[in-house]
Amino acid sequence: MQTAFVTMAGLDPKHIIVILLATFSVILCAEAVPGWEKLSKEEELDLDRQLKLINKPAIKSFQTEDGDVIDCVDIYKQHAFDHPMLKNHKIQMKPTTIPKGIRNHESETTYKSLQYMLGNISCPQGSVPIKRATRKDLIMARHIKSIGFNHPTNTNASTSGIDEGGHHYAGVAYRAFVVGGRANINVWNPSVKVNQFSIASMSISKGPKQQMNNVQVGWGVNKALYPDGSRLYTYWTDNSTGNWLLTFFNEYVGYWPKALFTTMADGADYISWAGSTYSIITDPTPTMGSGHFPKEGGYGISAFVNSIQIMPNRFYKFVSPLYYVLDTFADVPQCYDVIKNVAKDPNWGAYIFFGGPGNCTFQ
């Protein structure tokens, strides 16, 4: 399973910005999904063939405390360059435009946070850290698709009624042209079982259901995918070049090249900030956010997303959307709900409280 993603990873201020074209990989437990050991010999050989294509020669390697192997790979010899749309791609080494509203005073926090994520791994100049893919990663990628973990957090198609696929949402949406969005997403550790997930994210998309392009930012919990709890993933966009950029704590990390998008090559027409859950429809639903309804408390009790902002045009300025332009949605409010507001405090701006205890069955 491949996603062509170009990363500007300034993990060490002494090093130049380097580029990472990363493959999608996951962390998992062998016991998480029953039946993995029942692979046929042909299936095993097929997985091994895929791994030989994905894992490129390493200049240097590290092993993390979790047991993962991180390879330092030449920036021009990574798996994402195998993508047919990127054969002649010219790497964008830095953003062409820095949007107004991106603050620069968090660099020390950024550096420490990125170093924490990689366990203080430092690759030689001109190489980038990539997790070495395993058989389990490839099997889990298939499993994720089968249970709907890659289902876009998007309610364009339906904002009410029970989703027969087992997905449920609670959040707000802005339904107009945007070229970017951002928010602070409160991290919790909701209770989920195997074959369930619970996430909180910002989702930007465009296109009809069968042709939809979508990118998301936030955190998620899936027992099989991340057995040790919540993980943070973030996206930010800059359309001066047509590439969709990624930032983490205002640090420019990378981008998805414009060539990979069809409907979103020039912008998006839908952006949401929401909690989302998935479970098999015969099982009780997992908790969302903190597990508390918004009306049960507020800060410190209910999960929130604050500092909600959009970039509605190519003047490269993030602005807070007005209260009335944000549509609330909660397809099963008896399980999960949402409350929106706009604070006078600029550090909060437009915000939502969302979530609920779940434990609902639909049969």
TrEMBL record:
PROSITE patterns: NEPROSIN_PEP_CD (PS52045). This is Neprosin PEP catalytic domain-containing protein. It comes from the Eukaryota. Residues 97-361 form the Neprosin PEP catalytic domain. It comes from Ziziphus jujuba var. spinosa. Transmembrane segments: none annotated.
